[in-house]
Amino acid sequence: MPPNPQELIPMFTSESEEGKINDLSSMEHVARQVDEWDVINEVLDTEDLGKPWAEKTTKGRIIKVLWLIVKFITVLASLYMFICSLSFLSSAFQLLGGKSAGEVFAKSSILNNPIIGLMIGVLVTVLVQSSSTSTSIIVAMVSAGIITIRPAISMIMGANIGTTVTNTIVSLGQSMDRKMFRRAFAGATVHDCFNWLCVVIFLPLEALLHPLEKISAAITSSISDDDQVTDLDFLKVITKPLTSKIIRIDKSTIKNIAKYCTQAGNAISYDAVKCSDARNSSMMKSCDDASTPEYERCDYAFAKTALNDTETGVILLILSLILLCTCLTILVKTLQSLLMGRMAQTLKKHINSDLPKPFGWLTGYLFIVVGMGMTILVQSSSVFTSAITPLVGMGVISIDRMFPLTLGSNIGTTGTAMLASLAATGDKRSLTIQVAVSHLLFNIFGIVLFYPFPPMRRLPIKAAKFLGNTTAKYRWFAVVYLVVVFLLLPMTFVALSFHVILLYVVIGLVFLVIAAVITLNLLQKYCRDKLPYCLRTWEFLPRPLRSLEPCDSVFSKLICCMKKPGDSDTIPTNDIRLVMAAKETDGA
Fold first, then answer.
1. What's the pLDDT score for residue 203?
2. Sign of CA dihedral 11, 15, 19, 22
3. What is the pLDDT of residues 380-410, one digit of tens each?
């Protein structure tokens, strides 16, 4: 049961303020007025801002400008190292799980099931921490004739989901502040929610009618097999000078395992010798590679050690996580000191406000274009969404603005697969381009379905806010969400794929439970009086099946999940005083 609002008065107010909230109804009115998602009207910390610019001396103004320059340089440096840490994190996962990802792809006999193809796409993208890598592998497999276009499309859908794990991990960096964590986690998972909703709709549709396959085939039917395009990556031009001095990954190892170790289906490229060589080779760039120029050989830190892939991966994973958390903390703290007072209010207002009438309805589409352009520029949706996730936690960007930015990022990230397909050669080149076009169409159709219509647009936003609220109350939920959604769920379905009957029984039971929960929720909302008394609430279920409280009693014993002193799930003091001040102003 929630606490009585009257009992909260001493917690939120001083003795002189108690008279202002002296009855139950007024306190409930205050609670209803506070919106934790309203970033524009949020109380701003105006302490320690110093004198206004007009009242500062010349010396004070010079010091202020110098401090702003230092902070701006700090933001750029921490952002650069943050992006590099994401590259190191991706390399660590490839060292630890890259060969396993190649082995998963080699199981082409199970890829014909669209659900398994989807889950393999999710799992492989999580293992290599890069949708660009996984989509490029899929394109290469189609080009080699290992898989056909149909399983490739379902795997591309899975890669779309798997790429969102990075910004969800980044949101954990703000877990120490409940309010920021609520927003950051919701901002990260709005991408997940949208991708899962698209998959729920388009995966069955594609399995039955194959619209993406047919439309993409019509678009690519006239493309020549001769023209080629050079791969472009603007981000690596900036980060490679540092990252290449630490670690270099040979991604061809994953592709070779997927290509030469496939024995089932129409895969005619199986080669026992090359398969063995690929499985025994290191994921790190080899010093003996004749194709590598002499001045580049072994010119990175981990090449000078005697560590194997697993040992290097573990060390690199730990270092990358430490670097990521450090850079994220510095970035957030510096931005918080920059975005204070009137500057923060002005920035929030302009970012989260609509265009002037009658063009207000175009605002969201403008941000879709911005997200697409930025993702094409950095050639990575993970980097772009991870960079703006902390801004959502700080309240600079609202969830409603984050959503169109991630939609644009979804479109922008398809450029990687498109470039990889255009660089392909041989008689399968048109099929590889068709895979990339299918990826683009999947994201465009998802936007057309969900964004233009407000009721549909609110579905992923409400789902993300629900996850944010749950995580703010139970911080351990974020880690459980990551493990279950991005690891246990796809691994379970892949394991069940070896027992087809059991697989379909489990899938049927899952859909039956989901349908029953949705139906009963709708009946409880609209026809509650007509239901049997026991079904009017969820009290008939055991408590662990309808509440996270029993799990919280276990997880809260862990140090990382314990509440900080003074931390509370109730309404913050400043927010209540803000509402009371607004009431007094209205009354005056």
1. 92
2. positive
3. 788 788 888 888 888 888 898 999 999 999 8
Query: Number of C-alpha atoms within 13 angstroms, CB side, residue 22?
Result: 6
Tens of pLDDT, residue by residue over 331-352, are 777 876 776 655 666 666 777 7
437 closest CA partner among 417, 464, 457, 461: 417
525: helix, strand or coil: helix
pLDDT winner (highest mean) among 112-116, 391-395, 442-446:
442-446
Quote the CA–CA distance of 381 and 482 in Å, as a whole number: 18
Residue 227 to residue 212: CA distance in whole angstroms = 24
Residue whose pair of structure tokens reads 């605002």 in the numeric block: 363
* Chain mean position to CA 554: 27
Token pair, residue 173, equals: 């960096």
Strand partners, 284: 249
Kindly state the DSSP code that residue 398 receives in the 8-state scheme. -
Collect contacts of 426-430 with beta carbons under 8 A, ≥24 apart. Answer: 426/143, 426/225, 427/225, 428/142, 428/143, 428/144, 428/145, 429/143, 429/223, 429/225, 430/220, 430/221, 430/223, 430/225
Q: At what angle do helices 178-209 and 476-483 cross, to 10 degrees?
A: 20
Q: Which residues pair with 309 in a beta bridge?
A: none
Q: Which residues pair with 249 in a beta bridge?
A: 284
Residues 39 and 348: beta-carbon distance below 8 Å: yes
CA–CA distance, 26 with 588 (Å, rounded to integer)? 18
pLDDT band at residue 475 using 50, 70 and 90 as cut-offs: confident
